[in-house]
């Protein structure tokens, strides 16, 4: 009886988690296609996407830093969305609830570090104000990236992990 009472609430939370995750995936597209920042050094402006930044780091002889930026800014946001989608898709009654909860906790933990890119751009924009010599200007891509990160974190927060162990009440089987 208790599971039947909790089920509608859990179903609403799961729907909310899905909606937030889909919105995050949608915002990730412009986050990767639009420029995140324009650097203006001595009158020469260079707007760039995250991928442009990775390529510039590679060309500048900094493959280690390029790998860090690629992993943190491109790979991890996509993997977070994919991992959460798999967990949500397989819920309720996940076939491997222990593995799913470990993956969920990892994504949840990584979420707090995902805003690092946004903070770096904000810091550069605030600190690089040297008149005509150099300045950094945030662009729309960083806003889209921040929205994708926040929506992913909200999605993970909205998900009810106890559903990983609960039977599917909507399948027509007797509860």
TrEMBL record:
Transmembrane segments: 16-34, 65-89, 109-130, 142-165
One Pfam family recorded for the sequence: PqiA
UniProt entry keywords in alphabetical sequence: Membrane, Transmembrane, Transmembrane helix
InterPro entries: PqiA-like
Source taxon at top rank: Bacteria
Name the UniProt record assigns to this protein: Paraquat-inducible protein A
Organism: Alloalcanivorax marinus
Record lineage: Bacteria, Pseudomonadati, Pseudomonadota, Gammaproteobacteria, Oceanospirillales
């Amino acid at each position: 009886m208790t599971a039947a009472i909790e089920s509608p609430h859990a179903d609403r939370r799961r729907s909310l988690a899905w909606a937030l995750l889909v919105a995050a995936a949608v915002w990730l597209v412009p986050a990767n296609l639009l420029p995140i920042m324009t650097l203006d050094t001595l009158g020469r402006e260079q707007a760039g996407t995250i991928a442009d930044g990775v390529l510039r780091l590679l060309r500048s002889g900094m493959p280690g830093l390029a790998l860090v930026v690629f992993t943190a800014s491109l790979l991890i946001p996509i993997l977070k969305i994919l991992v959460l989608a798999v967990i949500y898709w397989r819920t309720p009654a996940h076939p491997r609830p222990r593995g799913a909860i470990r993956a969920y906790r990892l994504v949840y933990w990584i979420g707090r570090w995902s805003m690092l890119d946004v903070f770096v751009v904000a810091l550069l924009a605030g600190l690089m104000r040297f008149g005509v010599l150099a300045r950094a200007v945030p662009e729309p891509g960083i806003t889209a990236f921040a929205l994708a990160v926040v929506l992913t974190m909200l999605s993970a927060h909205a998900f009810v992990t106890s559903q990983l162990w609960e039977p599917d009440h909507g399948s027509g089987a007797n509860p």
